[in-house]
Design a protein that fits this description.
The structure holds 2 protein chains of 2 kinds. Chain A is of the alpha/beta class. Chain A is built from 16 helices and 14 strands. Chain A folds into 3 domains: 12-127, 2-Layer Sandwich (Gyrase A, domain 2); 158-215 and 390-450, Four Helix Bundle (Hemerythrin (Met), subunit A), CATH 1.20.120; 223-384, 3-Layer(aba) Sandwich (Rossmann fold), CATH 3.40.50. Chain A has helices spanning 34-41, 95-107, 117-124, 130-141, 145-155, 158-182, 193-222, 236-247, 278-282, 289-302, 313-323, 346-350, 367-384, 391-413, 417-435, 440-450; strands spanning 12-15, 24-30, 42-43, 54-61, 66-75, 86-92, 111-112, 224-229, 250-254, 263-268, 271-275, 305-310, 331-336, 357-358. The longest helix of chain B has 23 residues, at 457-479. Classes of the chains: A alpha/beta, B alpha+beta.
Chain lengths: 455, 620
């Protein structure tokens, strides 16, 4: 355990729950003297004498009037998130009350915390290290289990491992170039430019999916986009409602700039799914065929997962044609609906596609299998690859990619090794910004261990 | 008998000479103490100055107003610009020197400086009062007072020479070791360590058969080190290249059991990039031959230096192995190679001025700091001399940034990372290599040297003239358009794509196949444009135009780094209150006491997350 005493700083306060009207809001106060500060405006038990991790009922007043009835939780150093003395005030979730309480705290000497300042203090006081701190920032933003899992995976260093492997390859490349630069006068082998190009191309191929995975990483945070595609009256709207009903877990229904982009998101098995163009799905009654197809194609483009819904051989043929236009990187499911109406036709239709899931949106039978399959698809996608979710990591990967591309351009132009080396170093520098490692010493160590040099 | 000096310099090697010359030129009264007046500026190892990265350092020393470049120019017997097939940042001047002339020339320079006094003796002890150095006490028992002391003891502190199973005290072959000083410094609280280096045998050039070797002549159009008006060589001597072979290796192996290195008698760590020949064949057993450079020691002498054959095996084994090398069949040996162990003081005990943290006005420079190489030593001596003078006169420290000079890289590496093995400069140690070129050292540094009173006004004027010309040429190239009719003939000869419309010359220069020189050869228009300018200015302008995108990229990195350099850490910052620092990071920070976040980021053992922690603390 870290036995160094915690360095407590000035008192900061902030609303810890999302702003907007909720039933309850939590105001967090942290820093040296935070407990006595809150105690001075709190009527109830003497908080300074309270044990750590205890909750107390009372009122908060500005000296003349009572502002609210609150529950106050006391955390004593070092047993708090920031490791400082901290208090959490649970009050009623009105903007007015929240503002008043924060104002009183400020009048008592606290200041409003800057974004991330609680995490920063936790970090400064040794609660966790830097990469962990970044992952914690993601955890805070994570509002679904899957997003949570990605953040945790990052904490465990799966991401760092992948980058470390890349770095080793790059360092080898860089050493070869540096060798011919610093020891070109001596009897050393020169780096084969063709081999170097192959190596860089391989590196680019490795980094590209990591960069692309940022989209998946984001998808997990923003919700995995799903499109339900099918001819009119196959039951798209019913299926959507059934899914929403079954989980009773509508997260939100966002209206965009046009009513076309209404999207419903829901949590299924801890993963956030975002259904695209639900407005279009709900309008199937007066659907003109041509518009329907255009709209379906647009929805498919935005989706990671496409549910092809059909209820007969005829409607299957329609979507089969559509499904053949689907890019290879999209996942899709064939779903046979209305098995309650025409149970006899079901077995035959099954044969149309081996992985068809049969459901009845109306009676909700088979919905479990469908949601299980949806969840499995996401897990499959995120388990095979390291997912980059941190924006800073993404930026440095992108810069690594750009610098490596500059190396390729340099090779094509035939620039000399010192300039190639500059771009390779830049790539290493950007990777280092993520994994945090020194370049120069590694290069020399690598050179000295592998090559016989020296007059 | 002695006045109180401003600066006492102990040792008269490359570091000591530069330190004494710099401090004296700036106005300090300097006493140079050396054990032997006959070995001032003695080249203990190979008779050469410069080389990759090292040549850039000599140019920097010269640009600041130091003497190594001038001495090298006046005493060289061969000059080559290495790495010309690579980019301009890699071009590295190197010369073969006349060993005896080099020493004589240095001594003349020092003797001609009225502020330099000499004393032949051994410094045994420092005079220290209240944590401040007050002078030295010599082996003759004389106490000489001074306001500052620069120690440049080289390999002499408890030097121990090994040849086979024999070993004896000595600082260089034929010279005594210096004892006493290390022990006192350790008592004062300094950490000391042990390092090892080696040198090859010297042979009689008359006994060699050069017809069995490859000739390595000097450049057809030799350049030089100094930005002053020293003259390039009119005639040169060649070096020769030959190779070891399996037979040589077999003979060497017969001496392994008597090798002081393999037997563990040598405790100090040697440089990995300058291994002894026995180390090479032992560690890289699959390599069937190693290169040998046969270097003349001067204009007149027949003595020859066998570069690449550093060894501490018994002299009879050295001799027998040498004679198996093609061209060496009848070689007569003048002096055997040997290994030498010596004391050094881990340089993390120094400030960026090379003053010790522990004792005020005490400076260390050269091999005593764990470096190797004449150039590395000389530039430290220069910086220590400058800063000793400035300390004594209550002037601010003179420190060069990593983005300004290899000298900055070297000192910054030493004080922050320390070194486990003899430290040699490589271009790969510089993160801003593209900026730290041998062609622009004057532009980078001469104004600074002038400001501190070291570089002369003539030097400054020359740089200003060069800069003006460079700007002028750049604007001409950026605005002069050539038509396809005018230039396509020249382009055709350079085997590059022809023009279809008028293009600026600066645009054309971006093509790798095209150089100003080639354009001028093939196009009278271009030849006319540059005729009025100095060759150096044209080259400078060309580099700036040709590689502007790479230079710009590097400048961006410098800006970024400078932001960290501008975040100061207060002198007595209490690292103990920063709980989330790693244990190792905290200990290293407490020991090195960096003055900026930038410096902290380069200390080995301080992780990037430690830096983020510090930035959070300081950013507030």
């Amino acid at each position: 355990m870290n036995t160094t005493p915690v360095h407590q700083q000035e008192v900061i306060c902030a609303l810890a729950t999302p702003s907007g009207v909720g039933a309850i809001a939590v105001i967090r106060v942290s820093g040296e003297g935070s407990i006595s500060m809150v105690n001075a405006i709190f009527k109830g038990k003497n908080l300074e004498k309270a044990e750590s991790h205890t909750v107390h009922f009372g009122t908060i007043s500005d000296g003349t009037d009572i502002i609210d009835e609150v529950l106050v939780t006391v955390f004593k150093t070092p047993r708090s998130f920031t490791k400082e003395d901290s208090i959490e005030i649970s009050c009623h979730g009105s903007d007015y009350i929240i503002r008043q309480i924060l104002k009183i705290l400020i009048s008592k000497g606290a200041r409003i915390a800057k974004p991330g300042e609680f995490t920063q203090r936790a970090f400064l006081n040794g609660q966790f290290d830097l990469v962990q701190a970044e992952a914690v920032a993601d955890l805070i933003a994570a509002d679904s289990q899957s997003s949570h899992k990605t953040a945790l995976n990052q904490l465990r260093g799966g991401f760092s491992k992948k980058l470390a492997a890349l770095r080793t390859e790059l360092i080898h490349f860089a050493s070869l170039i540096e060798l011919e630069l610093d020891f070109g006068e001596e009897d050393v082998e020169f780096a084969e430019r063709d081999d170097l190009r192959k190596l860089i191309e391989h590196l680019l191929e490795t980094i590209a999916p990591l960069i692309e995975s940022f989209d998946l990483g984001n998808a997990i945070k923003e919700g995995v986009p799903v499109a339900i595609i099918g001819s009119p009256n196959v039951g798209k709207s019913t299926l959507l409602n059934a899914l929403l009903n079954e989980e009773k877990a509508i997260v939100t229904s966002i209206a965009g700039t046009t009513r076309d982009v209404i999207e419903d998101t829901m949590l299924l098995g801890g993963i956030k799914f975002r259904f695209i163009d639900t407005a279009g799905i709900r309008e199937t009654v007066d659907f003109v065929e041509s518009i329907g197809i255009e709209r379906s194609i647009a929805a498919m483009e935005k989706a990671d997962i496409v549910i092809f819904l059909f209820d007969s051989e005829e409607t299957f043929r329609d979507i089969k044609a559509l499904s053949e236009t689907l890019p290879a990187d999209k996942h899709f499911l064939f779903v046979l609906n209305k098995i309650d109406i025409d149970i006899n036709s079901a077995p035959r239709l099954y044969l149309l596609h081996e992985e068809t899931i049969a459901i009845s949106a109306q009676t909700q039978s088979g919905l479990g299998a469908l949601t299980t399959k949806l969840i499995a698809l996401v897990h499959k996608q995120s388990a095979t690859d390291t997912v980059v979710t941190n924006l800073r990591h993404y930026e440095h990967l992108q810069k690594t990619f750009n610098s490596l591309t500059d190396v390729i351009n340099g090779l094509t132009l035939g620039v000399t090794g010192d300039f190639l080396a500059q771009d390779i170093r830049l790539s290493l520098h950007h990777l280092g910004e993520i994994t945090g490692t020194i370049v120069t010493d590694d290069l020399l160590d690598n050179i000295f261990s592998k090559f016989c040099i020296g007059k | 008998m002695f006045q109180e000096y401003d600066v006492i310099v102990v040792g008269a090697g490359h570091a000591g000479c530069e330190a004494a010359a710099a401090a004296a030129t700036m106005g300090s009264k300097v006493l140079l103490i050396t054990m032997n007046m006959h070995t001032i500026a003695q080249m203990s190892c190979n008779p050469a100055m410069g080389g990759v990265a090292k040549g850039q350092i000599v140019r920097e020393i010269d640009a600041l107003g130091g003497q190594s470049g001038i001495v090298s120019d006046k005493t060289m017997i061969q000059f080559r610009m290495l790495n010309l097939s690579k980019g301009p940042a890699m071009w590295s001047p190197r010369c073969q020197s006349d060993r005896a002339m080099f020493a004589t020339e240095w001594r003349n320079i020092l003797e001609n400086n009225p502020n330099v006094d000499f004393w032949q003796d051994t410094a045994k002890e420092l005079l220290v009062e209240d944590g401040q150095v007050k002078g030295v006490k010599t082996s003759l028992g004389i106490e000489i007072k001074s306001k500052s002391v620069v120690l440049t003891n080289g390999t002499f502190l408890n030097g121990l020479i090994h040849i086979g199973e024999k070993n004896f005290g000595g600082g260089r072959t034929g010279e005594k070791a210096a004892t006493g000083l290390t022990e006192q410094l350790v008592q004062l609280g300094f950490q000391a360590g042990r390092m090892k280096t080696g040198t090859p045998p010297r042979v009689d050039g008359r006994s060699l058969d050069y017809s069995k070797m490859e000739e390595q002549p000097g450049d057809e159009k030799p350049a030089k080190f100094s930005y002053t008006d020293t003259k390039p060589l009119a005639k040169q001597r060649s070096c020769w290249i030959t190779y070891t072979n399996q037979e040589v290796h077999d003979v060497l192996k017969t001496g392994f059991e008597k090798s002081p290195m393999f037997s563990g008698r040598i405790k100090g760590l040697g440089p990995r990039y300058c291994p002894s020949v026995e180390d090479k064949i032992n560690r890289f057993a699959d390599k069937d031959r190693h290169q040998i450079f046969v270097e003349p020691e001067g204009w007149d002498t027949v003595e020859v230096y066998v570069n690449g054959f550093s060894t501490s095996l018994p002299e009879d084994v050295q001799y027998a192995a040498l004679r198996k090398i093609p061209g060496f069949e009848n070689a007569k040996m003048f002096r055997p190679g040997y290994a030498i162990e010596y004391d050094y003081f881990p340089p993390t005990q120094l400030k960026s001025t090379l003053e010790t943290h522990l004792i005020k006005n005490l400076f260390f420079a050269g091999q005593i700091n764990g470096t190797t190489g004449y150039e590395e030593a000389a530039c430290q001596g220069l910086m220590a001399g400058i800063n000793a003078h400035r300390n004594v006169n209550d002037l601010s420290p003179f420190v060069l940034k990593r983005s300004e000079a290899y000298i900055g890289v070297l000192i910054d590496d030493l004080i922050n990372k320390g070194t486990e093995e003899p430290y040699r400069m490589f271009t790969s140690r510089a993160e801003y290599r593209t900026l730290l070129r041998q062609d622009n050292a004057d532009i980078r540094l001469t104004a600074k040297g002038y400001e501190i009173g070291l570089a002369s006004e003539d030097r400054l004027d020359a740089v200003k003239k060069k800069q003006n010309e460079v700007e002028h040429i750049i604007s001409i190239f950026a605005t002069t358009k050539v038509s396809p009719e005018e230039i396509n003939g020249a382009l055709e000869q350079m085997e590059t794509a022809l023009l279809r419309e008028k293009t600026t010359l600066s645009q054309l220069l971006k093509r790798p196949q095209i150089s100003v020189q080639k354009l001028a050869e093939h196009s009278s228009i271009v030849a006319g444009l540059i005729a009025a300018f100095e060759e150096e200015s044209v080259q400078q302008a060309e580099i700036n135009l040709k590689y502007d995108s790479y230079i710009e990229k590097e400048m961006l990195l410098v800006d970024k780094m400078n932001r960290l350099e501008n975040l100061n850490i207060i002198d007595n910052f209490n690292y103990d209150i920063v709980t989330s620092l790693s244990y190792e990071g905290r200990e290293k920070l407490k020991r090195t006491r960096p003055s900026t976040i930038g410096q902290a980021s380069r200390i080995s053992g301080v992780s990037p997350s430690d830096i983020s922690v510090l930035m959070l603390y300081i950013g507030r």
